[in-house]
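Saturday, quiet lab. Running sequence design on the structure tokens for the scaffold JK sent over.
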């Protein structure tokens, strides 16, 4: 993994969906750079997610006080309210929020059920909204909000209308909130990963995967650490004049926006 950008000692960083994949890599990178990390875990299989956080923390040789697993289903407004009550009680404030928790339920539109549509919008878009609103009383002036969107918000893709709509919604939310929070010097940006090797993409059939990979100009899938490095950049002091933007981390697969 590349060296982390910046120094985050004494910073309190919240990362949702931090037990695995991009969220775990991001939370770990912040913790290695000195931050105290609140590692969001879902309420389903809560214990195994908390254990997963403890595992990556221990592997990195970080003490328990630097990484606190806190449970909330991001799609439930009451859960998220309780989550920030806990954060306030234990840490007092937040410097950086990374909205990373997300799911997919892929189907072509003709076959997509109401449940598949609603579940994806609820976790990806409602969850981002609930967390942004929940963190507002706690986030310091000059703080950072980084929302994990997706390249498919910019391009669309076959069979992912619910997911693409939720991720495009995040881009609109990001731009509006950037304007609302600019007077407090809080920046709000989105990251749009392309194809990243995590559990979410491991279910893609091999032949589809190969075709996808052949189209990536940089010639490899992205890693969770590639995304984490961009998130840390956006949270660093050097990115203080960058707000309302979306940064593609996609190996050149999409060069617009
Ligand atoms: P992942 O499935 O490994 O991780 C998703 C995380 O979200 C998990 O930690 C999970 O516990 C958490 N989560 C799911 N539902 C939740 C809920 N209701 N409440 C709280 N937490 C919940 O997948 P990933 O690839 O690491 O995805 C991380 C983010 O990156 C997602 O928002 C995803 O949409 C986005 N993304 C991924 C890719 C990719 O290629 N992997 C590309 C673009 C965007």
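Result came back. Writing it out in full:
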């Amino acid at each position: 993994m590349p060296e982390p950008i910046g120094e985050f000692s004494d910073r309190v960083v919240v990362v949702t969906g931090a037990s695995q994949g991009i969220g775990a890599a991001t939370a770990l990178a912040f913790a290695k750079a000195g931050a105290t990390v609140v590692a969001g875990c879902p309420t389903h299989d809560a214990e195994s997610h908390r254990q997963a956080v403890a595992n990556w923390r221990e592997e990195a040789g970080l003490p328990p006080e630097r990484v606190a697993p806190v449970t909330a289903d991001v799609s439930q407004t009451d859960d998220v309210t309780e989550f920030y009550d806990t954060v306030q009680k234990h840490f007092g404030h937040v410097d950086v929020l990374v909205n990373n928790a997300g799911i997919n339920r892929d189907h072509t539109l003709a076959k997509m059920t109401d449940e598949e549509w609603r579940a994806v919008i609820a976790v990806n878009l409602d969850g981002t909204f609930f967390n942004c609103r929940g963190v507002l009383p706690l986030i310091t002036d000059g703080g950072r909000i980084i929302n994990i969107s997706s390249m498919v918000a910019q391009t669309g893709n076959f069979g992912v209308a619910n997911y693409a709509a939720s991720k495009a919604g995040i881009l609109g939310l990001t731009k509006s909130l950037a304007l609302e929070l600019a007077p407090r010097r809080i920046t709000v940006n989105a990251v749009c990963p392309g194809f990243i090797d995590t559990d979410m993409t491991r279910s893609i059939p091999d032949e589809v995967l190969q075709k996808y990979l052949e189209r990536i100009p940089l010639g490899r899938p992205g890693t969770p650490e590639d995304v984490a490095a961009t998130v840390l950049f956006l949270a660093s002091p050097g990115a203080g004049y960058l707000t309302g933007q979306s940064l593609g981390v996609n190996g050149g697969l999409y060069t617009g926006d």
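Notes for JK: The first helix runs from residue 21 to 32. The chain has a mean pLDDT of 96. Ask whether to fix the surface positions before the next round.
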